[in-house]
Amino acid sequence: MTITKSKTLNVDYFSYVKSFFNLMKPRVMSLVIFTCAVGLLIAPTKIEFTNIIFSLLAVALGSGAAGALNMWYESDLDSLMTRTCLRPIPTGKVTKNQALVFGILSSIISVAALYIFSNLTAATILAITILFYVFIYTIWLKRKTPQNIVIGGAAGALPPMIGWAIATDGISLEPFILFLIIFIWTPSHFWALSLYKTEDYKKASIPMLPITSGIKTTKLNIFAYSLILFPTTLLPYFFEFSGLFYLILAIIMSSYYLFISYRLLTEKNSILEKKLAAKLFGYSILYLFMIFVFILLDNVVVF
Question: I want to staple 62 with a disulfide (CB 3.0 to 4.6 A). Which of 1, 56, 110, 154 is the partner?
Answer without folding.
Answer: 110
